[in-house]
Amino acid sequence: MKNQTYNSVLNKQSIKMIIMKAFVFIAFISLSNSKSNYMPNLPLGEYRIVFEKMYSCESMNVFQYYFYFSKTTLTKTELKGNYTFLIPFDDTYTFDLNVASWGSTGGWKPNSMVYIAKNGCSTFKKVMGNVWYTVVKAFNITSYDCPIQAGTHMTNGIDLKELDNFNMPKVYFYGKYKVTFKIRNEEKNVFGCIVLEITLIRPWEKPF
Q1: pLDDT by residue (tens digit) across 59-72?
Q2: Per-residue CA distances from 43 to 49, 89, 98 (Å)
Q3: Would you give the distance in Å from CA 71 to the centre of its chain?
Q4: What average pLDDT does the structure give for the chain?
Q5: Which residue, 86, 74, 196, 205, is CA-closest to 135?
Q6: Does the CA dihedral 146-78-167-182 come out positive or negative?
Q7: Residues 52-102: pLDDT tens digits?
C-alpha cells in the first residue's frame, strides 16, 4: 500500500514537471517570436559603436597622434594618449575621410563612405559633433574654436561611451569598418593620419 502511494506521488510529480517544462518551452518560443518581431535581423538600422583599435598611419608627421584604448573596469574602457601638432591645425588644410568595410570573404574594401572637404579644422569639428567638446575638454585645449594651436596635449582618459555621438548617419549597415582620417595641405601631402577601427552592432546586441 505504501509503495502504491509512493508511486502515485512520484507520478504526480513527474506529470507536474512535464507540464512545467512544457510551459517553459512555450514561453521561450513566444519570447523568441516577440524578439524577432521587435528586433528584426535587418542588415542596416540604428546602431551602437564598438571601438576596436586606434592607431597612426603613414604621413609626414606634422600632426602626430598616439592613442590607445585602456579597459579600466569590466564595463568601462577609456581612450588615452596624446597628440603633438608641430604647427596650428586651421582651415587652410583639407579634411579627408575614407571608410573601408570588412568584406564577406575577408579583407578591407575602401570607399564604403568618402568625405573630402576644405576648411579642414572646421570640417573636422563639424564631423565630430558633440564629441568635439568632450575631446577639447579632456585634452585641456584652451579653446573650443579653430584653429587648434601647435603643442602637445594628453588626456588621462575619456570614457568611450562619451565618444559615440559623432555627426554621422544614424542609420547604417552593420559590420566592421576602418575609418581613416587624413589632413592634407594644398599640395595634397598628408600632414597627419589616424585610423579608427569600429564595429557597428544592433542596439540590443552585446559586443563580440
Answers
A1: 999 999 999 999 99
A2: 15, 38, 21
A3: 15
A4: 84
A5: 196
A6: positive
A7: 999 999 999 999 999 999 999 888 999 999 999 999 999 999 999 999 999
**Overall pTM surpassing 0.85 (yes/no):** no
Give the ranges where 53-197 is alpha helix by DSSP (H): 120-128, 131-138
Amino acid letter, residue 22: A
CB 78 within 8 A of CB 158: yes
Q: How many helices (H) and strands (E) does the chain have?
A: 3, 10
Segments in the chain forming alpha helices (H):
2-38, 120-128, 131-138
At 21 the pLDDT is: 44
Chain position carrying cell 544614424: 170
- Beginning with the edge strand found earlier in the chain, give each strand of the sheet holding 175-184 in spatial order: 48-56, 190-201, 175-184, 94-102, 108-117
60 close to 191: Cβ distance less than 8 angstroms = yes
Helix axes 131-138, 120-128, angle to 10 degrees: 110
Q: How many CA atoms lie within 13 A of 49 on its CB side?
A: 21
Residue 143 or 2, more confident? 143
Please say whether the beta carbons of 58 and 190 come within 8 A: yes
Digit-coded pLDDT (tens) for 12-46:
445 544 544 444 344 344 434 444 445 667 888 99
Contact (Cβ atoms closer than 8 angstroms) between residue 79 and residue 67:
yes
